[in-house]
Amino acid sequence: MKTKLYNYLNKPYAVILIMLIAPLFGFIDRNFTFFFGLGVIFLILKGSKYNWARFGIGQKITSKTILKSLLLATIIFIVFTFLIDPLLIKWLGEYDLSSIDDIRGNLLGYIILMFVVWIFAAFGEEILFRGYYMKALAELLGNNKTAWISSAFIVSLYFGISHAYQGVIGVVSVFLWSFVISLIFSKNKNNLLLLVLIHGIYDTIGITLIYLNKDHIITEWVQQLL
């Protein structure tokens, strides 16, 4: 039974079925959609005797990877904070951050959220959306440059919609952010840990600003200049 399930999950088209089935769990709780995908990854890993390279983790973290992730995360944060987000807020309204609003000035809540961000958002989301969904879709579509770009677009749209709880602006902004990250992955197919670090650093900066209640100051200042 276990062998049959593993063989099925390794079928080229299986990723499409998983991506279609996963959102159905959102009717119970939006987090179930995410954990269903992680469950599938665990089954594939177990069946492959924990071949992490299957999901793009083929390189160890090096000092070069850390420096590269710091540089890219900083550049992406600056571009989104000073250019993209202010325009989106102007057109689409404010983000709905009610799900994490209680960390403002709350040190314990901030520390707990940091653990959650690095484990489930940085590592969990990257291995699911880039390491599994994007990589498998690209391979299904032909595993060439066009296939990877198409896969990046599809998965980014899918990822953006999964953030609908942040409002329309959340969907659009996360889609654009995810597309940038996905393009980086298409150039670093065996180094998913680079993406994990970029994701974690980016979210850490944003959440720290929310904890310090400084997240609106930059956006409001930039909007005054637009």
Automatic annotation (TrEMBL):
The answer to whether UniProt assigns keyword Transmembrane to this entry is yes
- Report domain CAAX prenyl protease 2/Lysostaphin resistance protein A-like positions: 110-204
Record carries keyword Transmembrane? yes
Q: In Gene Ontology terms, what is one molecular function of this protein?
A: metallopeptidase activity
Question: Transmembrane region positions?
Answer: 12-28, 34-53, 65-87, 107-129, 141-161, 167-185, 192-212
Q: Which UniProt keywords apply?
A: Hydrolase, Membrane, Metalloprotease, Protease, Transmembrane, Transmembrane helix
InterPro entries for this protein: Rce1/LyrA-like_dom
Coiled-coil intervals, chain numbering:
none
Protein name, please? CPBP family intramembrane metalloprotease
Give the organism the record lists.
Polaribacter ponticola
